[in-house]
Amino acid sequence: MDGVWFKEICFPVQSKGFREKNPIKELAEKYLPKKSKKRRYNVVNGKLELKNPSATCSWCHKSLILWDGRIGACCYDYDGIHTFGNINEQHFLEIWSSKNFRHYRENLIRYKKLKICENCSTL
């Protein structure tokens, strides 16, 4: 292993309303910082919204190698649902240059959010 990357706490902002009783609300109340200026999220009309959403997705310039060698779309694809090949079976550049992976990146560059983007804490 070359290094470890710790992710911030993120909540799917497209989830049910923040006022409703749901696990997201309970987790947010328990773990989000109490001081507003240290929070990544605001509560607006009963829903969580990112304070500073990113204009573009940084994952169009990088990829994720999962534990079993599959090349994943991004770190929010916890279960490896959106994969493009396996590093144990193909060279990385073949996978990166494949039609499916190029199409995925083109959609991100054109601001077309995919189903997986619903879990993103930066968009």
From TrEMBL:
Residues 62-120 form the 4Fe4S-binding SPASM domain. Pfam families: SPASM. SUPFAM superfamilies: Radical SAM enzymes. This is 4Fe4S-binding SPASM domain-containing protein. The lineage of its organism: unclassified sequences, metagenomes, ecological metagenomes.
